[in-house]
Amino acid sequence: MHKAWVQGIMSHTIVLGVIGADVHAVGNKILHYAYTQAGFFVVNLGVMVSQEEFVQAAIESGARAIVVSSLYGHGEIDCRGLRDKCIEAGLENIKLYAGGNLVVGKTDFKEVEDKFIAMGFDRVYPPGTDPKTSIDDINKDLNS
Amino acid sequence: MKPILCIDFGSTYTKVVGIDVDEPKILGRTQSFTTVKEDINIGLEKAIGKLANITGISEWPVRFACSSAAGGLKMIAIGLVPQLTMEAAKRAALSAGAKILKTYSYELNEAELDEIAKLKPDIILFTGGIDGGNQKVVLHNAQQLTQCKVRCPLVFAGNKAVSDQVAKILRASEWKVYVANNVMPTLNELSIDSARALIRDIFLEHIVVAKGLSKVQNTIDNILMPTPSAVLLAAELLSKGHIGAKGIGELIIVDVGGATTDVHSVADGHPTQSNVLIKGLSDLKIKRTVEGDLGARYSLPSLVEVVGIEAIAATIPTSVEVINQILKDLEAHPESFVSEPGLLKTLDDVAAEIAVKESVTRHAGMLEVHYTPFGTVYQQTGKDLSQVSHVIGTGGPLIYHHNVRSALKAAQFDPKNPFSLKPLSPNYYIDKQYILAAMGLLSIKYPKQALALLKSAITEV
After folding, report:
1. A60 vs B184: CB contact, 8 Å cut-off?
2. Domains plus CATH for chain B?
3. Which of A125, B233, B411, B418 has the fewest beta carbons under 10 Å from its own?
4. CATH class of the domain defined by A3-134
């Protein structure tokens, strides 16, 4: 049973996964561990997750946030349209987070962030971000 | 000698198999028309009378029965997301031996409620949300169901966080509600045992009575289960064996009927190649699928549509007009049956082969290729049946097929469709005496004898 339930605390349900044709599993495991320790109820879809799977999992689990990670540099293509799909599926208010090595090459992170915000993501994280940063943000966003 | 009678009340025929469990040996098998409208005992007594002519036995003190008469166990499955809880509900109902009338997803609307009332299901399986997940849609659907014009037993097997609330809402409007464990407690995990057990209990308690089958209850120990459940039991026993007697290993049973084609597989279905990731809803080791559009009689028009009438005409070979005429004739007289060679017989044979091919392709898992920056990765959905070594055929159109091996070979891996995970090089068998359901029934009390009889009755072709 989930830790937060055992403790009798209502926790936040979040959907986690590595998007697209990306098979990098290590970061996903670390985030799963960190988020669970932080008391979140994590629905982890693992690697190679399509946008549709993120949306379906969020509906079925009643999640209020989707955390998308990507390492192989195709994140921009893979993430485009996810917000639209959420709106279409009735998840207008769901929070979207993206992090990792989202684009190929050395691009200024500000540029990447702007691009993802424009695509409908609520927060974007550069490579090497401490999981705690996103945990604090999720808590702040979902408690407000 | 210890004689036992196994009865299968089918929609058309009541089939009886006499067994001596001491030896063990099949004493005889006969059938007569099912008489569910008047008194189901009439047909049963006729079949038993015919059996007496073969076996010389007219008293059968021990009787087991299964039934698919009066439309079988008709169910409706309601879920949330079509690929997730709705699919989980569908699989749970199928593995309980049900015939699925219709499935519904997301919020139920009024037109759908009317449709449910018209369909008159025997049982509704209502799911939605993983445990701790979606409540909104589930509670909405519970409220909607209170407005439905029909009442029948309802199993709720959705989000446990709202199961009490759902039961309360529905009971307040006179639904008979049974609460089971969630069919999908966590994402993509299938957990059907609890729901299946409840469905079976309801079948015994209510459905048998409601369908006028209770008249035989006095003469029979009990109508134990829907017929497909009995076939599933036989499949499991034959595959896994019983204490001290080995089973034959992983297998597929294809049952081609007049209206539907059932496929049962007993196989873990795990990937057999490297670089394969499993995707989507987990699968059951013992899985049943039913194809309502594939059958040799009532569903012949839809079967013809699946492959195209021109393709069928070319295979036989004859003209499209002739096929159209046969389809029309059969629609008026679906019971027509011929065993002599001729156009109709050839069409029967072709239809059976198509039913095998299509139904096993739909039952088996699929691979999808992804070319990633790190090489080729395969994603598998469903079961990998490539290493399954036994394909068993049953049902009239296969049993009376003029070349059953060639028909069953349609279940084999097809190089033209390399991503369909069908058996690579299985052996083929036929249930010549049509006894799978009877052996499933027998296996409840006499598993050892049922296994021995199954092994000797299934013949390689």
Report:
1. yes
2. 3-70+211-221 (3.30.420.40), 74-207 (3.40.50.360), 246-433 (3.30.420)
3. B418
4. alpha beta
